[in-house]
Design a protein that fits this description.
By secondary structure, the protein is α/β, with parallel strands linked by helices. It has eight helices and 13 strands. It has helices at residues 136-149, 166-172, 184-189, 191-200, 215-222, 276-279, 306-311, 317-329, and strands spanning 36-44, 47-52, 55-61, 75-80, 90-95, 101-105, 113-118, 122-128, 152-158, 179-181, 203-208, 249-252, 258-262. It has a six-stranded mixed beta sheet. The protein has a five-stranded mixed beta barrel with strand order 1-2-3-5-4. Strand 8, helix 1 (136-149) and strand 9 (152-158) form a beta-alpha-beta unit. The radius of gyration is 25 Å and the shape is globular.
């Protein structure tokens, strides 16, 4: 065996090869100051379409971002080939801070949260009044996700020709949520589209709803130049529709008046990720009453200060009931 002394010749020392290449590792990351900014339009199996200066560019996430993933609506910085030509590929090197996040889990027992949309201004919750029957628990869960993620909710009720909207709207009157009621006839003649557009102009709006409620039909009417596959039929036995949207996609409204983000139909909306303490922020009339609440108060327990706050006339009791109904939604599975 050869032994080395203090004064060895470096050429005599055997170097172990680096299987991942010979470039030394470094913690210094490039700044990419020349990167172009864009918006993620869709994500498909690791490939992202990013709109940069009105040009859709195919890109992939740079390794230096680690496990951080970009989603539809993200503002990102991109380097590489930005021509948008076929078979070109750019790199996303930076994901900017998000102003809002719509998240969900597969169910309430699933700790893995999925970011569905980033940087949306509002969440349009599309619900049919019949065929299939409305599911208030699903609406409640979407509301909680919107309040938790910093999005303003909007109720879009379809198929009013099959059932009246008054009963469902009574459940949400105390929440002061804007709403639009549509019928099939109004969708065909364009009057419903015009009313929905009034709520969307100048905003980025994510559309969510379970299968068969007419969400994609409405999106197609709003953005006729970029039609997605039409909705499937509703199963007469289960009362559920067939998924026709399989990936989230951002579509521009005409006249640069905003964006519509169509998301896949959901059959459940898990809220495992939601911190109940953040839901109170959607009730500014009740929030001052929480100052005297005990530490880590759930706002639905005997010592909650909101009871006294409402009893003293500072807020409407119906608003406290609505808050607690939404908070209880996290502990109650959709459909219960």
């Amino acid at each position: 065996m050869r032994r080395y002394g203090k004064h060895t010749d470096e050429d005599d020392i055997r170097q172990r090869p680096n299987r991942k290449g010979n470039r030394p590792r470094t913690n210094i990351r490039p700044k990419h100051e020349d990167a172009a900014e864009g918006m993620v339009l869709t994500v498909d199996r690791g490939r992202l379409t990013v709109l940069i200066d009105d040009v859709p560019v195919t890109a992939m996430k740079a390794r230096e971002l680690g496990r951080k993933a970009a989603v539809v609506g993200d503002r990102v910085s991109v380097v590489g080939d930005l021509s948008g030509k076929k078979d070109t590929l750019a790199r996303i090197v930076r994901i900017e801070s998000r102003s809002s996040v719509l998240r969900r889990t597969a169910d309430d027992d699933d700790p893995y949260e999925r970011v569905v949309v980033a940087n949306a201004d509002q969440l349009a919750i599309v619900t049919a009044l019949a065929d299939p029957e409305p599911r208030p628990r699903m609406i409640d869960r979407c509301l909680v996700a919107a309040f938790d993620g910093g999005l303003d909710p909007l109720l879009v009720l379809t198929k009013s020709d099959l059932a009246p909207a008054s009963k469902l709207l009574d459940l949400y009157g105390d929440l002061d949520i804007p709403y639009v009621v549509t019928s099939r006839e109004e969708l065909e003649d364009g009057t419903a589209v015009a009313r929905v557009r009034e709520q969307l102009d100048g905003k980025v709006t994510a559309f969510v709803g379970h299968s068969g409620v007419g969400k994609t039909t409405l999106v197609n009417a709003l953005v006729p130049d970029d039609q997605r596959r039409t909705t499937g039929h509703v199963n007469a036995v289960t009362g559920r529709g067939r998924h026709t949207t399989t990936s989230a996609l951002a579509l521009p409204l005409s006249g640069d008046a905003g964006w519509v983000i169509d998301t896949p139909g959901v059959r459940s909306f898990g809220l495992h990720h939601v911190d109940p303490s953040r839901v109170i922020h959607a009730f500014p009339d009740l929030e001052p009453g929480t100052e005297n609440c005990p530490r880590a108060c759930s706002h639905d327990e005997p010592d909650c200060a909101l009871d006294a706050y409402v009893a003293e006339g500072h807020a409407d009791p119906a608003r406290l009931y609505s808050l607690r109904r939404l908070l209880a939604t996290r502990e109650r599975r959709e459909g219960d």
